[in-house]
Each structure stands twice: as C-alpha cells, then as structure tokens.
Design goal:
Helix content is 67%, strand content 7%. With 660 residues, it is an alpha/beta fold. It is built from 29 helices and ten strands. The chain is globular and about 85 Å long.
C-alpha cells in the first residue's frame, strides 16, 4: 500500500473512532459523525487527508455493500404486504417531490438533467436515522411509524432507476438522450432477467454446499464474491456498480441464508459506508460557507417545507388523521444517505457546478443534523398544532377499551397479541378467565376482533391505555412481546398504578432478567432457559425418573430464578459473536491455579471475589469436584476454580487470583 494512502487511512480511523464515540455518547447518528470527520480532516478543513481516488474507490464499495444489504431486505411478499404504503404512498411521494423540486431547480437555472437528479436526491430521506430514532422512541409500530417505513422502502427501491439514469444524463450527446435512456432500460431489463435466472438456479444450491462445509470464512468469502461479482456485471454492461449489488441482495433475500449473509456483510458495509460519508463531508468547502450561508438556509428550509407539505398532503389523501400525517411528514422531512449517494454521482458526472453543489450539499448535511431533534419532538409539534384532530382518534381508541373493559374484574391484561399472546389468551379462555389484549398491529387487531376476540389497538406503554384496560381491577398483567425498552416503560407505568399486581414478562434470554425484576416484574420468563428446562424435564421422564422428582427439580430451578440454567460455558461461537452479542450476560469460566499464583495458600474469604461480582460455584481438586466451596476453603496449586460472572468481572477476578 502506498504510504500516503496508509497515513490517510490511519488519520481517518483515529479521528473517526474519537468522533463517533462522542456522537454515540450523545445518542446522535454515526452518519453525522462521519460527515463531520470529512469536513474536519478534508482538503477544505484541516487538510490532513487529500480527496484522492483511493479513498473514493473504497467509499464507492461502501455504497455497493449498502445497496446489497438493502436488496436483502426486499422480497415480493414484504412488498405485497405493505403495498398501499410502499407502492401507493411511497411512489407518489418520490414522483411528486422529484417533479416539484426538479421544476423549481430548472427554473432557477440548473440544466434539465441536473434538476431532475437534484429533485430525486431531495425526495430521499434517511432510512438509517429514521429507523434508529423511531426504534429508540418505541414509535416504529405506531401509525406514523408504519407510514414512514413504507415510504422509506419505496425510496430505497427508487434509487435504482436514478443509478441507471445518471450515467446516461451525463453523456455529451444530449440530443440522443432519449435513445440512450431506452438503451439503458433495455440493458437493465436484460441484466436483471439474466441475473435472476442464473441466481434462481445457482445461488441456493451453491450456498447450501458452502453452508454444509461449516466454514464461516468460506461463507463470508462467497457472500463477498456474489456482491462484487454482480456489481462488476452491471458495471461491465454500462450500468452502476450499486445496481448489481442490489440485484444480488434481492436474489439472496429469497433464500434461507439472508440473515447470515447480512450479518457477515454488515462489518464491511458499516466501515466502508462510513468512509463514503467521510468523502461526502470532504466535498463541503467551509471557506465558501459564509458567502452562501443565506442560500443554504433558504434551500434547507425549502427542502424541509416541501417534503413536509407533500408527505402531509399525500398521507391525508390516503385517510390518515391530520396529526398522524404531520408526524409522518416531520419524520421524513430531512435529506438522506441515498440523496447523498445521488448527489455525489451527480458531482462526479459534472452535472452540477461547484457553487450550486456546495449550497445543496450543505443544506443536505444540515437537514440530517436537525433530523434527530425533529423526530424526537414530532409528537409535541403535531399535538400543538392539531391537538383536537390528533387526539380524537386516540380518545376513540381509549373509549372503545373503556367501554369493553368496564364490566371486567379479575381479568388478565395481555400486552402484545402476537403468537405468544394469542396462545396465552386461548389457554386463559379454556380455563374460563376473562382477558383483554392490546396490540399495535392494525391488521392483527382487525382480524382478531372480526373473529370475536377482545383485542384493541393501543400502545401499552401509555398509562391511560393501561387504565382504560382496567388495570385497577385486573388480576394480572402479561407482557408477551420481546422488547426490553417497551417492557421497562410498561413496568414503570403499571407499578405506579398498581404496586400489587402480578406482572409476567417475556424476554429472549437472561441478559436483562435482573434489570426487569428490579423494575417490578413478578416473573421474567426467558425463552432460551424455559426451552432448556422443558427439554430437560422431558428427557428425565424418558429416562424413567419419577414424575414427582422431575416436577420438584423444575420447581427448584424456577424458584431460584433459573440460577442453575444461567450458569454455562461460552463456546467459540459466543466469543466470535463479540461483546455486543453478549449483552453483559453472566457465564461460567474456569481458572487454574499454577505454582506461584497469588491465591495459592490463601482462602476464598481472603481473595474476596464477591467484591468483583464473581462467585465460585465449584472447585476441582485432584479430580474431585466440590460444589459451592465455603469461604474458609484454602486454595492450593493445581486447583481449578469455576467462576460465575460477567466477562469483565471474571477477567478482573482472574487477575486477582493469579497476580493479586
């Protein structure tokens, strides 16, 4: 590697690590951090890193992997399930925004080609920022959240035609642009049909063969090969690299290997995509910003205003209440990463001059910087201007729940009516218990109510919804969904209203078990531990262990809050998953004391591992295992201790045992 390139990469990595960590601390999107890095270290900032072909090439691969992972998310069943929001509302938003913004840009002096692409770039919103913010605010399944996701899906899909058109529009012979577009369309159709035909017959058998080898390295190499080979094919056909990657992602998205491929590709995508946003930041010339600041602010306000107005109008035409329409418009009013992709391609194709490019680029970046603030306060803004109409629908939901639950007493409230919630309801009905369920999926609620079940559309995290469901008279509350953030919020509300009500919480594993218990859960049921318990009990019965003894063992495990099942040794797969997958869960780990270890000749009481949050569950000495050794146990050379605690605590305990 060229030493100059290596130095540039090192500078980018150092500044990126520092900047992203600061942005994460303030819960701001990493995209904004990368843009700031580019502005700071680029040729128009501190000039630590040149805007070279090498960095741009790596950044382009970031876009390739981004489109590849977007393609993995697209499937015909998903598009059909969300066809009204995606194909109807989404297509209208992209088309109308492109037309309005493009027309204004053309009137203001841009060429037709540049105006068209700028209009398309403005039509795109930030999928990464919107999904993250809505998820953190527990609004992803709300009415405005559902509309926003549907529009974002179509925006992601609409990028593909622009990727085909930009190279054609950048051609020198503008008189033959119609024929060029037609020829690009023909090539695009041929390439798509050919790739899907080949992929249908080859990809699934190929990945089956690769998966059977049980080699993660080979699987990752094959996924990379598919993404880059498809990108090369479309590039060879005169189309964009990103188009081929998107098609490869769609083909793999129809297979059972989609999730594994996405997990393997994500590290490459995130790092290279971060580099892409850094190169976008490098394009922003801070020296000219004071002179164009008034134009930048005007364009920024125009982008937010136009997108807000168009989304609100279209949402209202589809039947959304004014408040929901406004919240959807606020969420989608910013520019996005695909808009930056299109803008960078436009700059590379020289469709925009430097002055106009700086104004639009600065406005895009500022709108993305404002988007977390806008999304966080979307509800406050909507309620302030549309309090009556916005709250009317919510009050109607509350009224329906109150009317149905007013005669209930000693009933069970089920929060979440997915598969587990429905199974709970059926068992309660079989035993004659009254129940009422709340869910945020309108289709599920509609179908269940049509079938005669007592299910209502409502957000369980809201105190008034729990009150409407009769929590003051309820016998128990069940949280049947696996969402720790929402569960914590419901526990807080429920304990404020009814400190004595039993609350059962479902979770995927034991990572957040203690946190949920401290928040007020009467019982936390981790799926993985319950599955282990059920398999073990069935096995013991098959081994002719008396039923009474099996029931006693099961009861002891549950009474100890799954203590026995939570102690396990993490294997190689857990280590490869990394600390984020671990989530701070406790595990078992062995430490062997060699001659000269600090703990030799000392007692467990002297070592005081409990101060570190670590417990000695067993001691192996001369081949004999001793369970739960006493604090007075004196340690010897050759002893093997079985420690139980988090990874960090065990590491500290190991240091204390061996070195003091």
């Amino acid at each position: 590697m060229n030493p100059g390139v290596l130095e540039s990469v090192l500078v980018l990595l150092i500044v990126s690590v520092f900047t992203v960590s600061i942005f994460r601390r303030f819960r701001l999107p990493a995209i904004l951090a990368y843009l700031c890095v580019g502005v700071m270290v680029g040729p128009h900032g501190l000039a630590w890193v040149p805007d070279s072909e090498a960095t741009r090439l790596l950044a382009e691969y970031g876009v390739v992997f981004l489109l590849f992972t977007v393609g993995l998310e697209f499937s015909l069943p998903r598009l059909l399930a969300m066809r009204h929001a995606v194909l109807g509302l989404g297509s209208a938003q992209v088309a109308l925004t492109t037309l309005v913004v493009g027309s204004v840009a053309w009137v203001l002096g841009l060429s037709k080609a540049a105006a068209f692409v700028v209009g398309g770039a403005v039509a795109m919103s930030s999928t990464a920022i919107v999904i993250r913010q809505l998820t953190e605010r527990l609004e992803l399944n709300s009415r405005h959240g559902g509309l926003s996701v549907g529009i974002l899906l179509f925006q992601d899909l609409a990028v593909i035609p622009f990727l085909i058109l930009i190279p054609v529009l950048a051609g020198e012979n503008q008189d033959a642009v119609v024929w060029e577009l037609l020829w690009a369309l023909i090539k695009g159709v041929v390439v798509v049909v050919a790739m899907f035909s080949v992929g249908h017959w080859i990809l699934r058998p190929l990945f089956h063969e690769i998966a059977s080898s049980r080699s993660s390295e080979l699987f990752t190499l094959t996924a990379l090969l598919m993404a880059l080979a498809a990108a090369w094919i479309t590039h060879f056909a005169g189309l964009s690299l990103a188009l081929g990657a998107f098609l490869a992602g769609m083909m793999l998205g129809e297979t059972e290997f989609r999730h594994q491929v996405e997990a393997d590709i994500r590290p490459f995508r995130d790092v290279l995509l971060g580099l892409f946003f850094i190169t976008i930041g490098m394009l922003l010339d801070l020296s000219v910003l004071p002179g164009i600041l008034h134009w930048t602010v005007l364009v920024l306000v125009s982008i937010i205003g136009v997108k807000l107005a168009i989304v609100v109008a279209l949402a209202r035409l589809t039947g959304a209440e004014p408040g929901v329409a406004v919240r959807t418009g606020i969420v989608l009013a910013q520019a996005g990463e695909f808009g930056l992709v299109l803008l960078s391609l436009t700059l590379g194709a020289r469709l925009l001059d430097h002055h106009n490019a700086q104004i639009i680029l600065a406005a895009f970046i500022f709108s993305m910087a404002l988007s977390p603030l806008m999304i966080n306060y979307n509800g406050v803004i909507a309620k302030r201007f549309f309090a009556g109409s916005y709250l009317r629908q919510r009050e109607q939901f509350l009224h329906d729940v109150v009317q149905d639950a007013r005669d209930l007493s000693g009933h069970v409230i089920i929060c979440g009516y997915g598969r587990i919630g429905q199974n709970i309801a059926r068992l309660l009905a079989k035993e004659g218990f009254e129940r009422i369920a709340l869910d945020l999926d309108p289709v599920r609620v509609r179908d269940a109510r049509t079938a005669g079940e007592r299910v209502f559309y409502g957000d369980s995290t809201h105190q008034e919804m729990l009150e409407a469901a009769g929590i003051a008279r309820a016998r128990a509350l069940v949280l049947s969904f696996d969402d720790v953030a929402a569960s914590m919020k419901i526990l807080s509300q429920a304990r404020r209203l009814r400190p004595d009500i039993p609350i059962l919480v479902r979770t995927r594993d034991d990572t957040d078990l203690e946190r949920l218990q401290h928040a007020g859960a009467t019982e936390v049921v981790p799926e993985t531990l319950e599955a282990s318990l059920m398999l073990s009990s069935h096995l013991l019965l098959l081994l002719n262990v008396p039923v009474s003894r099996v029931l006693r063992e099961v009861k002891e495990v549950r009474d100890s809050r799954y203590r026995l099942l939570r102690e396990y040794f993490h294997g190689q797969e857990d280590a490869e998953a990394g600390p984020e997958a671990d989530g701070g869960a406790k595990r078992l780990q062995i430490v062997k004391l060699e001659d000269g270890a600090h703990a030799v000749t000392r007692t467990l009481n002297e070592i005081r591992l409990e101060q570190l949050g670590v417990e000695v569950t067993a001691l192996l000495r001369d081949g004999i295992r001793s369970e739960a050794p006493t604090p007075q146990t004196q340690l010897r050379a050759g002893d093997t201790l079985v420690l139980f605690g988090t990874a960090g605590a065990i590491e500290a305990a190991e240091v204390r045992l061996l070195r003091g």
